[in-house]
Amino acid sequence: MRQWKRGVLKHQKGFTLIEALFQLVVFALFTQLAIGFYLLIQHWNASFFTEESIEWEIFIQDFQQYLLEIEEIYQTGNALYIVDSSAENIKIDKISDVLRLQINNKGYVPLLMGIKNVDFSISDPFLTVKIEFLNGIVKERALFIQYVEK
Which residues pair with 140 in a beta bridge? Predict the structure, then answer.
């Protein structure tokens, strides 16, 4: 019986202590990478997909359509005035915490809500729009102004 146990013990294969420790270290490294990747994704979601960021991108897409075929563009205070090729007078200004659009002095269409400050700066052929939201987030974008050729 003793010889049988010795024979089995001699031919047994298994993990040594060093192999087990190596696997533990590899597992710990993969765990740290997975946790780091998860935290990075969470940070990206928090910074890129805020409600203000989505509203800002939608606003920019809408706003760019008013900068096509422009005859004249000027600024008075916080209001931006645009005269386009179809002789429409477009006024964009901040009233309360809303950025509003008015065409030919009729009606108000809200373009962007929840804003604290708005700043338009014109440096041909670009218009820079800088907006500070109520929660302190500041967004800025330079847009190309397409003038009508005379």
Answer: 130
